[in-house]
Amino acid sequence: MLRPPRNTLNERAVGWWRVQWLLMTAVHVLPLAVLGALIGSARFWLLLSAAVLAVAGAAATVLFPLWWFRTHRWEITEDAVYVRTGFFWQEWRIAPMSRIQTVDTVRGPLEQLYRLATVTVTTASAKGAVRIQGLDHEVAADLAQQLTRITRDTPGDAT
Amino acid sequence: MSTAAPPADWRRLDPRTVLVTALVVAGVVAGAAIPVTLGLTRWFGLPAAVLQVLAGAVLVIGAAAGADRVRWHRTRYRVGEERVELHTGLLLVKRRSLARTRIRTVDLTANLMLRLLGLVTVRIGTGEQGHDSTLELDPVTRTEGERLRRLLLEHTAPPGIHREGELAVLDPRWIRYAPVSFVAPMLGGAAVGAVLQVSDWVGAQGEVIEWVGDRFRETPLLWVVIALVLAALVAGVVGALGLWIEMWWNYRLEREPGGTLRVRRGLFTSRSISVEEARLRGVDLVEPLGVRLVGAARLDAITTGLAKDHEAKNADHNTLLPAAPRTRADAVAADVLRETATPTGAALTPHPRAARGRRVRWSLAAVLGPVLVLTVLGALLTPVLLWIALGCTVVLVPVAVALALDAYRGLGHALSGRYLVTRSGTVRRSTAALERAGVIGWTVRQSVFQRRAGLLSITATTAAGGGAYTAYDTDASEGLTFAAEAVPGLLEPFLERVEHTGP
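YS: structure for the whole thing
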């Protein structure tokens, strides 16, 4: 079997994921609740669906980040980038250093709040990108620098 | 820009482009002229209307031809030692240049009119995504196009078994595979749609439907439906035959000295597509269901940097061989890959029985889900739906099970010499032979259900073709061993030996 990659993400990623789930739940529940309060004839069904969504969203907010934190892992060796993601649909991705074309670091507004960053490593394949989300932003910067250095020193035309 | 002739090494497009543009625009104008004339007769007499339309037509054609004349005047290109350069643009001058070492494809196309004038459109590409990677010379003479093609694709041949010259030519008997492709029913449906649409434009849709109804006044409904479906199918078959002739007439696949594969084909619009062998990462033997049932297969190239722009949207851009007998397709695959035996014919490792169960469950769920909905609705509303649900179950369940079993039989993977081979699919079975050196990463996926069944899906990512080729539902440990062997050193560091528990 494939062994798990060595490093876990930053613990703050759990909070970051929870905020994302909360926002997503709110975006769906609030309009339904408001409509339910305004439209008398359909109140029961609107509020019912709002409640169902709220409960599901709350469960996801509590559970998914915990599960993800346990399964999401990453590792950089001299030869490859190795990442594991997903809980129900687990996915392992391996990209060899010699084939890496670009290394991007992205920090969205929420990530900045949590001092996190996402590193995306792309290869020449349209379907081979490797993404590490929820890294501490300093770790991510170091990582991007390290990757850029290794790929520069590794020969090959990346296709 | 001066009006003087360009310096010696700069060349111009063929001046007859002005004539071509004028003729094309004239054709469009002629099509529009009749309804416009008819419309104008409402206010003017017929002679006046005709005169006005003629004047308008001359103006439009003249403007288009004039614009094209300016474009011709301002366009020039040069093949230098290092770079190919193109200067063009009506108002702004666009200067574009490609490094010659990066040029991967030189494709020539000529529609009927260009062919009559002995002209071609040349598309020079580096094979990268995006618009800036293609230079288009529209048009130049055919000899000039050939000269550019040979000049720009001149490289040293890779070593290996050589067979230069003709690898395959069209066998007219292959046309028998055209009607069984998916094109036929699609064209049939399109024909029916077109009849209704056109009659709707002239406001006679109701009359058409009524006329059809009149023909069948005495016949029972079932026969009407069957007759109409048959008529649509016949139209589709005729269309498919016509399309096949237009696309594949004069087809030939050649290997040219210097390691370039070249496909030439087309009855009215002639196309020449060149694939540099250094960019070839394998072949994909594609068998759509209908074609497979009559023992045929199509061959596609898996190459990096085959243009993915608008021109390539029609998927036949990377087809090396149209649907032909399976043995012929295998032989061509071997020739193309410079192998003695084709990897697409290699014996494949079948996948575990659990994969069969998964496929049967999926297809049953796909059939029984709608049936369940119908049943519930039928119980609530009307018993007619119950009968429909029963009919669907009786007809579709065997079909679904047969497809699922066939899909399972199709699954397989193997290593064959320099290639790794994966096969999957039932409606469109694809046997992809991908060069192991072309694998640039792995993606391993395992759902909760797959984990319980001891399966996983392994995807080899590559810069070529579809970008990823997957062996679905392999045995967990066997699949990982396969991937580790395929590309030594990439997956091994992350593997650990564990005692295999579970089924």
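YS: worth flagging: The interface with chain A takes residues 304, 438, 440-448, 451, 459, 461-464, 466-468, 476-477, 480, 489-491, 493-496, 498 of chain B (CB under 8 Å).
IM: good catch. Also Residues 353-409 of chain B form one domain.
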